[in-house]
Every structure is written in C-alpha cells, then in structure tokens.
Write a structure and sequence with these properties.
four-stranded antiparallel beta sheet; 1 helix; 4 strands
C-alpha cells in the first residue's frame, strides 16, 4: 500500500542566516515551514513544523520573540565592547 504525497502549490524561501527558511502550502491546503542548510535544498529539513490553525500565530510570536532577543543581545554586547574599549 502506497501513500499519496501532497504536492506543494506555493513555496517561498527566505535567507535565514546560514539557513534557508521555506514556507509552503500543499494542494490539500495545509501550510508548513522548514529550515534547511543553505546550499542543500534537496536535503531533509533540520527542523520543520505546521502553520495550520493556531500554529501560524504561535510561529509568528516565536519569530518576534527571537528578533527581540537578538536585539537585546546586540545591545548588551555592544555596551560590553564599548566599556572594554573605554577602560584605562
């Protein structure tokens, strides 16, 4: 018994550091995301997940939290570098 595989009807890829973020919609209507190493588009995803229902808003919230954390890290480390450069 074989299982029919859903086909991708829409796909968007976005550079994400050294990874590629891929957003897809399947012909069955389901949506999802995956992260793959750049240059290995045919490789299986490192991580992936659903974008159906409440998962979509949760994924967006996770990305917003990650961006805020990156900015806080940048600000904290820039202050530390500046303090070290200003030290006698």
């Amino acid at each position: 018994m074989s299982v029919a595989r859903a086909h991708v009807t829409q796909s968007v890829t976005v550079p994400f550091g050294h990874l590629i973020l891929r957003l897809v919609q399947l012909d069955c209507g389901s949506r999802g995301w995956s992260l793959r190493p750049e240059g290995f588009e045919g490789a299986p995803p490192v991580v992936n997940g659903s974008l159906d229902g409440p998962s979509f808003d949760a994924f967006v919230a996770d990305l917003e939290t990650a961006v805020a954390s990156l900015r806080q890290f940048r600000d904290a480390t820039e202050v530390a570098v500046q303090d070290r450069e200003d030290a006698p």
